[in-house]
Amino acid sequence: TKLLLATRNAKKLGELRRILVAEGIEGVEVIGLADVSEFPEAPETAPDFEGNALAKARDAAAATGLPSIADDSGIAVDALNGMPGVLSARWSGKHGDDEANLDLVLAQLSDTPDERMGAAFVCAAALVVPGGDETVVRGEWRGSLIRERRGANGFGYDPIFVPEGGTRSSAELEPSEKDASSHRGLALRALVGELRKLAG
Ligand code: ITT
Protein backbone atom coordinates (compact mmCIF):
# COMPACT_ATOMS: atom_id res chain seq x y z
CA THR A 1 0.00 0.00 0.00
CA LYS A 2 1.12 3.53 -0.76
CA LEU A 3 0.49 6.44 1.59
CA LEU A 4 0.71 9.98 0.22
CA LEU A 5 1.99 12.79 2.45
CA ALA A 6 0.26 15.77 0.86
CA THR A 7 2.41 18.80 1.65
CA ARG A 8 4.45 21.29 -0.39
CA ASN A 9 6.58 22.16 2.63
CA ALA A 10 9.82 20.14 2.39
CA LYS A 11 10.72 20.52 6.08
CA LYS A 12 7.26 19.46 7.16
CA LEU A 13 7.43 16.48 4.80
CA GLY A 14 10.76 15.47 6.34
CA GLU A 15 9.30 15.54 9.84
CA LEU A 16 6.17 13.60 8.83
CA ARG A 17 8.30 10.89 7.21
CA ARG A 18 10.66 10.74 10.17
CA ILE A 19 7.82 10.35 12.68
CA LEU A 20 6.16 7.58 10.65
CA VAL A 21 9.46 5.75 10.20
CA ALA A 22 10.06 5.90 13.96
CA GLU A 23 6.64 4.31 14.49
CA GLY A 24 7.66 1.44 12.23
CA ILE A 25 4.51 1.25 10.13
CA GLU A 26 5.15 -1.97 8.19
CA GLY A 27 3.87 -2.63 4.68
CA VAL A 28 3.17 1.01 3.80
CA GLU A 29 5.27 2.85 1.22
CA VAL A 30 5.34 6.53 2.14
CA ILE A 31 5.49 8.92 -0.83
CA GLY A 32 5.30 12.69 -1.29
CA LEU A 33 3.66 15.01 -3.80
CA ALA A 34 6.85 14.92 -5.88
CA ASP A 35 6.07 11.24 -6.59
CA VAL A 36 2.57 11.80 -8.05
CA SER A 37 1.24 13.84 -10.99
CA GLU A 38 0.23 17.41 -10.26
CA PHE A 39 -3.37 18.14 -9.33
CA PRO A 40 -5.26 21.33 -8.55
CA GLU A 41 -5.39 22.24 -4.86
CA ALA A 42 -8.12 24.35 -3.30
CA PRO A 43 -6.92 27.39 -1.35
CA GLU A 44 -6.70 27.00 2.44
CA THR A 45 -9.71 28.97 3.59
CA ALA A 46 -11.00 27.11 6.65
CA PRO A 47 -10.98 29.07 9.92
CA ASP A 48 -9.41 26.15 11.79
CA PHE A 49 -6.49 23.75 11.38
CA GLU A 50 -8.76 20.70 11.22
CA GLY A 51 -10.81 22.07 8.30
CA ASN A 52 -7.72 22.93 6.27
CA ALA A 53 -6.04 19.59 6.95
CA LEU A 54 -9.16 17.69 5.91
CA ALA A 55 -9.59 19.76 2.72
CA LYS A 56 -5.95 19.19 1.73
CA ALA A 57 -6.14 15.44 2.39
CA ARG A 58 -9.46 15.11 0.50
CA ASP A 59 -8.04 16.91 -2.55
CA ALA A 60 -4.99 14.66 -2.58
CA ALA A 61 -6.96 11.43 -2.07
CA ALA A 62 -9.53 12.33 -4.74
CA ALA A 63 -6.87 13.26 -7.28
CA THR A 64 -4.60 10.26 -6.74
CA GLY A 65 -6.85 7.52 -5.39
CA LEU A 66 -4.26 7.02 -2.63
CA PRO A 67 -4.74 7.15 1.13
CA SER A 68 -3.46 10.62 1.94
CA ILE A 69 -2.31 12.52 5.01
CA ALA A 70 -2.29 16.31 5.18
CA ASP A 71 -0.97 18.46 8.03
CA ASP A 72 -2.20 21.95 8.75
CA SER A 73 -0.17 23.58 11.45
CA GLY A 74 0.97 26.83 12.94
CA ILE A 75 1.65 28.77 16.09
CA ALA A 76 -1.03 30.34 18.27
CA VAL A 77 0.36 33.21 20.36
CA ASP A 78 -1.56 34.02 23.55
CA ALA A 79 -0.84 37.76 23.49
CA LEU A 80 -1.98 37.93 19.85
CA ASN A 81 -5.32 36.23 20.62
CA GLY A 82 -4.21 32.99 19.00
CA MET A 83 -2.77 34.58 15.88
CA PRO A 84 -1.03 33.90 13.51
CA GLY A 85 -2.74 30.48 13.85
CA VAL A 86 -3.86 29.11 10.49
CA LEU A 87 -2.11 32.10 8.85
CA SER A 88 1.33 31.17 10.27
CA ALA A 89 2.89 30.34 6.89
CA ARG A 90 1.82 33.66 5.36
CA TRP A 91 1.61 36.05 8.32
CA SER A 92 3.91 38.62 6.72
CA GLY A 93 2.01 38.41 3.44
CA LYS A 94 4.51 36.22 1.63
CA HIS A 95 3.77 32.48 1.86
CA GLY A 96 6.61 30.52 3.40
CA ASP A 97 8.86 33.52 4.20
CA ASP A 98 9.91 32.33 7.67
CA GLU A 99 12.28 35.24 8.30
CA ALA A 100 9.64 37.87 7.59
CA ASN A 101 6.97 35.95 9.56
CA LEU A 102 9.17 35.72 12.66
CA ASP A 103 10.17 39.38 12.41
CA LEU A 104 6.54 40.45 12.23
CA VAL A 105 5.41 38.33 15.18
CA LEU A 106 8.30 39.60 17.31
CA ALA A 107 7.55 43.21 16.33
CA GLN A 108 3.93 42.68 17.37
CA LEU A 109 5.16 41.40 20.76
CA SER A 110 7.60 44.24 21.41
CA ASP A 111 5.42 45.71 24.18
CA THR A 112 4.44 42.33 25.67
CA PRO A 113 6.19 41.52 28.96
CA ASP A 114 8.38 38.40 29.05
CA GLU A 115 5.97 36.56 31.35
CA ARG A 116 3.15 36.90 28.79
CA MET A 117 4.97 35.34 25.85
CA GLY A 118 3.05 32.03 25.99
CA ALA A 119 2.30 30.24 22.73
CA ALA A 120 1.35 26.83 21.39
CA PHE A 121 2.27 25.01 18.23
CA VAL A 122 -0.78 23.25 16.82
CA CYS A 123 -0.93 20.48 14.21
CA ALA A 124 -4.10 19.01 12.74
CA ALA A 125 -3.41 15.88 10.70
CA ALA A 126 -6.07 14.39 8.44
CA LEU A 127 -6.00 10.90 6.96
CA VAL A 128 -8.40 10.30 4.06
CA VAL A 129 -8.75 6.80 2.63
CA PRO A 130 -10.54 6.79 -0.76
CA GLY A 131 -13.82 4.94 -0.32
CA GLY A 132 -13.04 4.59 3.37
CA ASP A 133 -12.66 6.55 6.56
CA GLU A 134 -11.69 10.14 7.23
CA THR A 135 -9.80 10.77 10.45
CA VAL A 136 -8.69 14.12 11.83
CA VAL A 137 -6.50 14.45 14.91
CA ARG A 138 -4.85 17.37 16.67
CA GLY A 139 -1.64 17.82 18.65
CA GLU A 140 -0.58 20.83 20.70
CA TRP A 141 2.81 21.77 22.12
CA ARG A 142 2.92 24.57 24.67
CA GLY A 143 5.83 26.87 25.36
CA SER A 144 6.83 30.49 25.21
CA LEU A 145 8.43 32.76 22.66
CA ILE A 146 11.84 34.39 22.97
CA ARG A 147 12.86 37.63 21.26
CA GLU A 148 16.06 36.34 19.66
CA ARG A 149 16.45 33.36 17.36
CA ARG A 150 18.35 30.34 18.74
CA GLY A 151 19.32 27.08 17.03
CA ALA A 152 19.53 25.79 13.47
CA ASN A 153 17.35 22.67 13.48
CA GLY A 154 13.70 22.47 12.50
CA PHE A 155 12.00 25.23 10.53
CA GLY A 156 9.51 28.07 10.74
CA TYR A 157 9.03 29.44 14.25
CA ASP A 158 11.29 26.84 15.94
CA PRO A 159 14.16 29.30 16.65
CA ILE A 160 11.91 31.52 18.84
CA PHE A 161 9.88 28.79 20.61
CA VAL A 162 11.02 27.31 23.94
CA PRO A 163 8.88 24.29 24.85
CA GLU A 164 7.38 24.15 28.34
CA GLY A 165 9.65 22.44 30.85
CA GLY A 166 12.84 23.14 28.89
CA THR A 167 15.38 25.87 28.28
CA ARG A 168 16.43 25.19 24.67
CA SER A 169 14.48 26.50 21.69
CA SER A 170 12.85 23.83 19.54
CA ALA A 171 15.50 24.62 16.89
CA GLU A 172 18.14 23.58 19.45
CA LEU A 173 16.53 20.18 20.08
CA GLU A 174 17.73 17.05 18.30
CA PRO A 175 15.19 15.94 15.68
CA SER A 176 14.20 12.91 17.78
CA GLU A 177 13.68 15.15 20.83
CA LYS A 178 11.44 17.47 18.86
CA ASP A 179 9.37 14.57 17.50
CA ALA A 180 8.94 13.04 20.97
CA SER A 181 6.97 16.04 22.21
CA SER A 182 6.01 18.15 19.21
CA HIS A 183 2.49 18.95 18.03
CA ARG A 184 3.27 16.98 14.87
CA GLY A 185 4.60 13.96 16.74
CA LEU A 186 1.52 13.89 18.97
CA ALA A 187 -0.89 14.21 16.05
CA LEU A 188 0.81 11.60 13.86
CA ARG A 189 1.09 9.06 16.67
CA ALA A 190 -2.68 9.43 17.14
CA LEU A 191 -3.09 8.21 13.54
CA VAL A 192 -0.96 5.10 13.95
CA GLY A 193 -3.92 2.81 14.68
CA GLU A 194 -5.64 3.84 11.44
CA LEU A 195 -2.38 3.50 9.51
CA ARG A 196 -1.85 -0.05 10.72
CA LYS A 197 -5.31 -0.92 9.36
CA LEU A 198 -4.17 0.30 5.92
CA ALA A 199 -1.20 -2.01 5.96
CA GLY A 200 -3.41 -4.77 7.38
P1 ITT B 1 1.43 22.69 3.09
O1 ITT B 1 0.10 23.39 3.27
O2 ITT B 1 1.76 22.38 1.68
O3 ITT B 1 1.55 21.47 3.98
P2 ITT B 1 2.52 25.05 4.41
O4 ITT B 1 3.90 25.44 4.84
O5 ITT B 1 1.72 26.06 3.64
O6 ITT B 1 2.61 23.67 3.58
P3 ITT B 1 0.75 25.31 6.71
O7 ITT B 1 -0.25 26.20 6.06
O8 ITT B 1 0.27 24.19 7.57
O9 ITT B 1 1.72 24.59 5.67
O10 ITT B 1 1.71 26.27 7.53
C1 ITT B 1 2.49 25.80 8.56
C2 ITT B 1 3.38 26.93 9.08
O11 ITT B 1 3.36 26.92 10.51
C3 ITT B 1 4.83 26.68 8.68
O12 ITT B 1 5.13 27.36 7.47
C4 ITT B 1 5.59 27.24 9.87
O13 ITT B 1 5.78 28.62 9.73
C5 ITT B 1 4.64 26.99 11.03
N1 ITT B 1 4.96 25.69 11.68
C6 ITT B 1 4.22 24.55 11.62
N2 ITT B 1 4.84 23.55 12.27
C7 ITT B 1 5.99 24.05 12.73
C8 ITT B 1 7.06 23.51 13.45
O14 ITT B 1 7.10 22.22 13.80
N3 ITT B 1 8.08 24.31 13.76
C9 ITT B 1 8.07 25.60 13.39
N4 ITT B 1 7.12 26.19 12.69
C10 ITT B 1 6.06 25.43 12.36
TrEMBL record:
Its cofactor is Mg(2+). InterPro entries: dITP/XTP_pyrophosphatase, ITPase-like_fam, RdgB/HAM1. Binds 1 Mg(2+) ion per subunit. The active site is at 72 (proton acceptor). One of its GO terms (molecular function) is ribonucleoside triphosphate phosphatase activity. One of its GO terms (biological process) is nucleotide metabolic process. It comes from the Bacteria. GO terms for cellular component: cytosol. It catalyses: ITP + H2O = IMP + diphosphate + H(+); dITP + H2O = dIMP + diphosphate + H(+); XTP + H2O = XMP + diphosphate + H(+). Keywords: Hydrolase, Magnesium, Metal-binding, Nucleotide metabolism, Nucleotide-binding. Substrate binds at residues 7-12, 73, 155-158, 178, 183-184. HAMAP family: Non_canon_purine_NTPase (MF_01405). Homodimer. Pyrophosphatase that catalyzes the hydrolysis of nucleoside triphosphates to their monophosphate derivatives, with a high preference for the non-canonical purine nucleotides XTP (xanthosine triphosphate), dITP (deoxyinosine triphosphate) and ITP. Seems to function as a house-cleaning enzyme that removes non-canonical purine nucleotides from the nucleotide pool, thus preventing their incorporation into DNA/RNA and avoiding chromosomal lesions. Belongs to the HAM1 NTPase family. This is dITP/XTP pyrophosphatase. It comes from Amycolatopsis coloradensis.
